[in-house]
Structure formats: C-alpha cells, structure tokens
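Journal club side-thread
Mid-discussion, someone asked how the predicted structure for our own chain would compare to the paper's figures. Pasting it here so we can look after the session.
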Amino acid sequence: MTGQTTPRLSHSLPPVYAAAAVRLLLPLLVLPLVASRVGAQEFGRLSFVLVWASLLSMIVEGGFLAAATRLAVTADAPRRWQLARLVFSARCVLCLPAVLLTVPVVLWVGGGSAQPWIDGPAIALLACALGWPATWYLQATQQLNRWARVELTVYAALLVLAWWIAYSVLAYLLLQLAASAALALFGWRWLRRDLAVAHDGASLWAPLQLGDGLRLGWTMMPVSIAGAAYSFALPAAASLQMAKTELGLYFMADRIVRAVLGAADPVLSVVYPRIVALFKTSGRAALTYAARWALGGALAGALLLLAGQAAWPLLQPIIAPSGGGLDAERLRAVMAVLAWLLPLLFGWKFLGYWILGSGRYDSAYRSCVIAGGVVGVLVAATWGGAAGAVGLAWTAVGVELVVIAVALGGVALTRGLRARTV
C-alpha cells in the first residue's frame, strides 16, 4: 500500500515547498492585484466573505486533521479505510450547520453587505469546499511530497486565472471555490485509489457509523474551531465594529504574514508523523527531536522578520502600489506588528505538535487552543475592532502568547499530577 515507507526529508520537502511557494505567491501577488482592481470598499467585502468562509470551514473539517491523523499514522489499510468512512460520513452532516450559520452571518454581522444573495452562498459553498480536503490521510501516510504536484498544478492555475480574469469580487470567489473544490475532490479520489484493496468498491458514506465519526472528530473539533480564531475568528469578531476598509487592510497584512508562516507547514506535515512514531521509543527522544526543530524555526522566523523590514521598500510597490486602494503606511504598520508572529510561531508550532502527538497531554492542548481562541474573540469583539487594524494585530500577537502560556502550564500541571500518582 502507498505510504508505508517513510521518505527521507531531502526527498519529501522540495516538492512540498514548491507547492508552498505558489501558496505564498497567491496573497503576495493576487490579493494586492484584486484590491487595486475592485477598490478598498469592495476588497473589504471580499475579505469579509473569505474570513467567514474559512472560519465556518472549521466546522466542516470537524477536527479530523488532528484526531484522524494521529490514528492513521500507525494504522493498516483496513483501519485507514474505516477512518476514511467515519470522516467522510461526519463531514457530510457537518456541512449542514456550516451552511445554516451563513444566514445570520450575512444578515446580522454583515448587515451592511450590498449583495447578500452573492455573499451568503459564497460563504456557504467556500466553507464546505475548504473543510473537505483529505489532508489528514495524506499527512498520516507521508505522501504530501507526491500530493504537492497536484497542489502545485491547482494553485498555479488559480494564480494565472486570477491574474487574467479576477476583475470583480465574484470572479475571484468563483476561482477560489473551483480551486478548493478541486483539491478536496482529488484528495479523496487519491485516498480511494490507495485503499482500493481495503474497500473493494464499497461506498465512503456509512450512515450507521455516523455517530462514531462525529465522536471521533468531536475530541478535536473545538480545538480546530478555536485554532481558527487566531487567523479568522479575530477579524470575524472585529468586523462587528470595524469598517470594511480597515478589515480589508488587516486581512491583507494577515494573509501575507500567514502565508510566510505557511512556509513551516511542509516541514510540520513531515515532522509531525515522525514525532508520533518516536513516542513509541521514548517521550524524551520525541521531545528532543521537536525541540531541535523549534529552535531552528525560531531563528528562521527572526531572520525573516528582519529581512521583511529591510525589504519593505522593494515589497511596497508590489503589495500596496500607489493608487491601489490600500494605505501603504498603515499596511506597513499592521505588518510590523504581525511579523512578530514569525519567530514566535515558527518555534512554538513544533512544540505544540509534540504536545498533540504525545497523546498524553490532550487536555492541555485543547485547553491552550480554546483559551486562546475565547480570549482572542472576546478582545477582538470588544476592543480590537474599535482599535482598528493595528489594534487587532496586537490582539493576534497577544492571543498567541496566551496559548503558549496556557499550554506550557497545562503540560507542567499534567506531568506533576502524574508524578504524584506514580
């Protein structure tokens, strides 16, 4: 069966990083282009749709990227097929609440939307498409290096087509929907092909196992939803007070910084299954391995932060060209704050994955993510939106610090309790 052997990092990372490079180019090139074409107000509307679609997609994703991946790493083909049926069936049902929630989002939160009959369906369809990828399986079987060819093709097509025809909010949303749906479809077809012997033509839809699927994902669904707070729920909550132009400004800066942070995702997707496997040998060995990556990540993030500040005069004409609809100086101020996430998260993510991969600190992991998400949303809704894009950026950095503090405290408390029990 595909994915049984562990590919070397030197073979895994280059194709994965090629796809990541294209994902990085999307916000750096396409979003500024679309902003210059549609203007600040319409770009704010586009940001509103994308933020809420991404947030609601976490309901559809269902927590399976964390819950199913960990189980699939060491599972055989029949067990992986069983997990696939659980995930598929649960996601079919989870699309319903995501779609229903778009109604209050558009009518109450986005009451100023000039085109609710476009924005509502766009949020609903995008939420479903973004939540469906089979990344949990591809990551667990360490096939993301091969899957990167598919991503590279789809994202490259999105990049070219957006440059060519994205002259309106609707055009860009249709392109984004097509790309997201294609990745979801291709990923599940890949899974079915891999597990052909295990399923022997059986359907992925398993209504009798729906309850088991929902229970599997429920352990991590609150974590997934709260985890989206740092990138999507914060601006979503702030949109209650924030002007569309300010929302667009923050969204642009956040997408660029998060795209750079995404440079660590290929490494994380390869390192995480290795951390899980190392726990079979020794928890200390897994921690040492994760700590080495965390130190390297923090140093790389600090270098990127300094490089970004030095390169701003060269980047500004691309990201915020004169007459492009966005205030270049305010965008720079927002990005200067959000850039502190680079050393912070490039280092922390590896340790966070060690906590998750251990299977021993699930409560600490859930607590840290949920606590950060709740704090972030409350601050964004009560203060962040009124403080504008810069204030919301400081809120995002503060939330991440809360997450790290709660996680480390939770791990220390868990270890202390276990030591006393022993």
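Post-session note: The longest helix spans residues 283-319.
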